[in-house]
Design a protein that fits this description.
The chain has 107 residues and is an alpha+beta fold. The chain is built from four helices and four strands. Strands 1-2-4-3 form a four-stranded antiparallel sheet.
């Protein structure tokens, strides 16, 4: 799979989370995540970007829902690495959130 494919998947299904940790001075929490009922898709994504872990299965939130799997990275180095690969292929909404995370990490 290509980086362009991975970026497109992340654009549609991924989540960029960053924020300051109130209980700790000058600490931030960063995370890139993606959830799917198709483990193989997340594994192909992880291979394409050469980063992150796929965890699960986790039960569906409602009776009858499929099990879910999660891909994630949770440290600054890996977040910067992943964003560095997919950033050129993201749309403006995701780029804005990526910019926010990058700025927070580099402060």
């Amino acid at each position: 799979m290509s980086i362009e494919w991975a970026a497109g998947l992340f654009e549609g299904e991924g989540c960029i989370t960053c924020g300051k940790i109130k209980q700790r001075l000058n600490s931030i929490r960063v995370q890139l995540t993606m959830s799917s009922s198709d483990r193989d898709v997340l594994e192909k994504f992880a291979i394409a970007i050469n980063c992150g872990r796929v965890l699960g299965p986790y039960p569906g939130q409602r009776v009858g829902n499929k099990n879910r799997y999660n891909w994630h990275v949770q440290n600054m180095r890996d977040c910067l690495y992943v964003l560095g690969q997919i950033y050129p292929h993201l749309c403006s909404r995701r780029k804005n959130k990526a910019d926010e995370m990058i700025e927070m990490i580099l402060e």
